[in-house]
Amino acid sequence: MSSPMQFRLAMSWPQACVSAYYVAYAENPHSTRFDCTIPAQDSSSSFPIAKLAEKVFKILFYLHLFLIAVLVIYLTIYGLVYASHSYHLYPKQWYWYPPLLIATLCAGIVGFTWQWITVRYTTKAIGAAFCLSPLLTSAMGVRFVHIGSSPSLALGIVSLVSALIQAIYGFWVSPRFDYANRILSASISDPPTKSMRLAFYSTLIGILYCCFLVCGIGGARAIEKNIVATSLFILVILLSLGWTMQFLKNVLQVTISRVKYMHLSGGVIMDNSVALHDTINYQTGSVSFGSILVPFISLFRGSARLTSLIRGDADVLVFAYARCYMQLASALVACGNRWGFVHVGVYNKGFVQASSDTWDIFNRVGLKQLLDRSH
């Protein structure tokens, strides 16, 4: 699980540049700072409880980090005590550590290397990503199925289905590869200073945090007498890992997109360290909430797209269900989308308000149809 998260974390700053490019263009499409990369297309709302929600999620995020740290330390100590009383020199729980730690380290290295490849060879990187993703996911699924246990069999089936979905999606968006190459090249042509350094530090923090949680997972495996407790502890740790990795990625996205936006919209050169300081001090609540909301909405929209693609010549009932599903997915994206992180950084808005305002701007200038190809 840590491998794709480390990869996404390392690639967050190019994504932030693309988001800032689109939002800055949508707010001022006639600016001379933009070329014809984005083709011509045929005041903020207020949420009274936004500030309260930000404070609540800020407290919840830091509280969850504290509780997870306590849990992992306890499980690690428990695992060490269990190992000291074991008759075996290396208890079987210890065999979990080397592969997980090595996978975490390799994920960080590959993710950071792929970031460099994307900057240097944009066209090849986009095509390779859509080709390698289903192949590697399929290989992982086959490996899980080969293990033979019930949990690994379930993970293997999920991985194989995910690989099939990735392959279908890659085939569906293949006509847009050329446009994606042009927009990505234009967005990262003049990256903010120290972007690679911020990405490196974020990746390093992610690797260290993953290694810390791996110790807790190994300790949880030592609880042999209560399988339910073991599974629950591991699930809680994995959920914490997902939320925290998304938070790190989105902190970097808010920071870089703010710097890029200021440069695109007004020619202002802003220091990355100042933007990062403001993000951590003032926007932790919005970022932590968005880090939960965006993955769920993205998963929902992805399933809606898949339903729409495979409905074919279905009967009236299935067609009505698929249409309703798509309309609900389209409505949800206005409440939470990754483009909203730009306004979170630039205007210090709440995440829902920022997402709604950004989507309204896209709709007003005709970019909604370009960005939201879920219909």
UniProtKB/TrEMBL annotation:
Membrane topology, as annotated, equals: Multi-pass membrane protein
A cellular component term, taken from the record's GO annotations: plasma membrane
Where does the UniProt annotation locate this protein? Cell membrane; Membrane
Give the InterPro entries listed for this entry: Choline_transptr-like
Show the GO MF annotations.
Answer: transmembrane transporter activity
Look up keyword tRNA processing and say if it applies: no
User: What Pfam families has UniProt attached to this entry?
Assistant: Choline_transpo
Which residue windows are transmembrane per the record? 59-82, 94-114, 126-147, 153-172, 198-220, 226-248
Q: Which UniProt keywords apply?
A: Membrane, Transmembrane, Transmembrane helix
User: Which PANTHER family did the record assign?
Assistant: CHOLINE TRANSPORTER-LIKE (SLC FAMILY 44), CHOLINE TRANSPORTER-LIKE PROTEIN
Q: Belongs to which family?
A: Belongs to the CTL (choline transporter-like) family.
* Role, per record: Choline transporter.
Q: What is this protein called?
A: Choline transporter-like protein
